[in-house]
Amino acid sequence: MSTRLRMILVTVMILGLGLALSLWCKPATAQPGRWSAQRLSAGVSAQGAVYDWHDGRDNASGFLPQAWASFSLTSRASLAGSFERDFTEQMNVYRGGARFQIQGEKPEDRIHAFLGADYVGRSGEGSVAYERKDTWGAVLSAAWTAAKKADRDILWVIGSGQYEPENAITVWRLGLRWQLLGGVY
Amino acid sequence: MALTSVFWKILGALNLTATDVLRRVEEIKTEFPETDVAADEFQKWFEGLVTEHLTPESAAALAMQTWQELTSEHPGYGPHHGAGV
User: Contact A124/B24 with Cβ under 8 angstroms?
Assistant: First the structure.
């Protein structure tokens, strides 16, 4: 089976899991409808990154501006996608997958933590360093709400570790994230 | 209830505390310095605890509780999922 086909299967499985979760439970009346645009949020991030290679290569670092979007399926499950550009490595990074919130689900909570799985795609000059340009990664992320406005989170300090077994690398990210759209209900 | 509380419930069902787990990890690391062997030993120890403390029925109940935690909908929850992207 080709790598691309395997990656498509993994992506379909991740999205299928999200869909199954969304169909399993019905939203409470106070929540927006299942596929309401109110569940969508989006914004931008500024992140520093450390590329921690597990195959003996020296670690490297980079600056990763990011555009992101999230769609909450339930109180704890969401779909997530992002686009990043590493200007130092001349590389684009695309990610899409599912997140499960393990901490901080209440509106007043400021500390949040998530587990997730992503399809990860790379393109551009820097991507030649990677064994697989299309792969998958497991993600553990945490965030602290640094600023709220009218009970809506608008700024987070974020940190995450993304492990890609097929590329033998962990990408550590630390930065600031702005929520420009959504996050109101 | 936060999902993390489910992890504590699992430890409780196995009659374990977080300190017990960390202590056993340290013991195994000392006894078996090779990572692969240590991982096997930890797995054996954990499987032994599961067999000792859980029945298929109680494990299924715990799994169902975890699933309900994951799929529940609470008014006003979810707007800060962008934090996890």
Answer: no
Partner B, chain A 39-78, Cβ-Cβ below 8 Å: 39, 41-43, 45, 68-72, 74-78
Q: pLDDT (tens digit, 9 = 90+) per residue, A95-130?
A: 999 999 988 888 889 999 999 999 999 999 999 999
Question: How far apart are alpha carbons A145 and B82 in whole angstroms?
Answer: 11
Task: Tell whether the model's pLDDT for residue A85 goes beyond 90.
Answer: yes
Tell me the residue type at A104.
Answer: G
- Residue that is written with structure tokens 């993600």 in the block: A139
CB-closest option in B3, B72, B77 to A106? B77
Give the distance from residue A126's alpha carbon to the nearest chain B alpha carbon, in angstroms: 23
Question: How far is the CA of B5 from the CAs of A27, A29, A133, B9, B62, in angstroms?
Answer: 23, 26, 37, 6, 12
Three-state SS annotation for B14-63: CCCCHHHHHHHHHHHHHHCCCHHHHHHHHHHHHHHHHHHHCCHHHHHHHH
A11–B contact, CB cutoff 8 A: no
